[in-house]
Amino acid sequence: MMAAPMAEPVKRDLVSIEDLSTAEILELFQHADEFRSNLHGWSDVCRGTIMATLFFEPSTRTRLSFESAMLRLGGGVITAADAESTSRAKGESLADTVRVVGGSYADILVVRHPEDGAARVAARYATVPVVNGGDGAHEHPTQTLCDLYTLWKEKGRLEGLEVVLCGDLRYSRTIHSFCYALARFGANIVTMPYPGFELPDYVLQRLRRDYGVQAATASVGDLPGLAGSSNTAAYLTASRPHQLALFTKLGNVEVSRIDAIYMTRAQRERHDGEDTKDYPRLTRSTMGAAAAKDARVMHPLPRVDEISYELDDDPRSVYFRQAELGVPMRMALMAYQLGKIQLEAPPPPLFSVAPGDASGVLGLRCRNERCITNNEGVRYLVRDFRVRPDTTPMVLACAYCEREVEARFIGDTASRSVYEHNARQVREIRKECRAYFATEDQARAAGFTFPSA
Ligand code: NCD
Known about the structure:
Blueprint: H1 22-37, E1 50-55, H2 61-72, E2 76-80, H3 94-101, E3 108-113, H4 118-125, E4 130-135, H5 141-155, E5 162-167, H6 173-184, E6 188-193, H7 201-211, E7 213-217, E8 234-238, E9 248-250, E10 253-255, E11 260-263, E12 296-298, H8 319-337, E13 385-388, E14 395-398, E15 404-406, E16 409-412, E17 417-420, E18 434-437, H9 440-445
Parallel strand pairs: 1-2, 1-3, 3-4, 5-6, 5-11, 11-12
Antiparallel strand pairs: 6-8, 7-8, 9-10, 13-14, 14-15, 16-17, 16-18
The structure holds N-carbamoyl-L-aspartate.
Residues 61-62, 134, 140, 143, 173-174, 264-265, 300-302 line the site of N-carbamoyl-L-aspartate (NCD).
């Protein structure tokens, strides 16, 4: 398995789960299996390599499993695990920190940060590979690798699985990365959000547009539904042939069976004081439902009260296994990013950290208030958007947090005139002179005027 190190490893960042192709993920599982078969046998793989963990938010498993993985690969670890102990407390930007730490201090960086899109900033400014250890409510791709790996080992496949996502689906970054991956692998997703904490619209839209995963029902669910009460759930189904399985009734949702229930805690640190009274809880009784007979109980941990302790020794509970598999999975990932192992699988076609198509577009601002471009990045980041092809009005996705915005108005920086996106005059504006705006007010505030008809 261990090929000779490449002379000049390509910088492979993992910011979003989309940064790895499906084939690469499956190949990484094989490597993780090999690492796991003899955890102590790989101390030559990354000898002389240093990993830095920069964690500006609390963590137990993610940071320690990364550190353990690098130590098991024979490398060294330096760590900043407390934001207050770094220069961030003095006002240093993430960009400056990673520029300094990535390079002579460390060969790979693992970053956790409270702001959405922070990991992309780190990836752009660091000269060494960056791994997103969780950025705000955006993504947590390595947790997803562990989750997929666990499910794949438990069920022998991912395609066609029925997976229930439960709890705080709005702010859980683990859920966001996981559902994109599930959709890509052809699993079916049942959402059971705590009311008010549904999957955000932008995630639903992406599932629909990029993977053909449709919201069949949009009613709110609750866990007692599993035990057959009248509670409801939203059902998303991939528009693929494997959907045409035999369905049975679960609440008012039809599924053939449940393969996994992925529970999440209320992400209180990201809430605006919302009440989470009566938050769902998995118990022996909910898991007694016929549909859940073979369901695996999953959780990224830490658990607060969402899974009753009585389920810990139920053979279907795999949450501690997810955490355990995190070490070999992260060994495989980092060995790959550092060029110590090579994969036959090609990377995804869009693999790129290059600036987007609409870099620095005038007027447009990411509409996600938690995006790093609207927080610490205000000081130094150039706003950057990627154009989603074939969209009218044009949809632009923030290159950092990926939140989308519609450019309903397009201005001409030469004449300072602005038009509706579908106006005839827009076609005449040269590409480099275009300024994009979501609202009329934004355009006027930037000094553009609407010519009278
Ligand atoms: C998760 C996280 O940080 O997003 N924890 C983890 O990394 N395993 C989940 C959580 O904190 O609820």
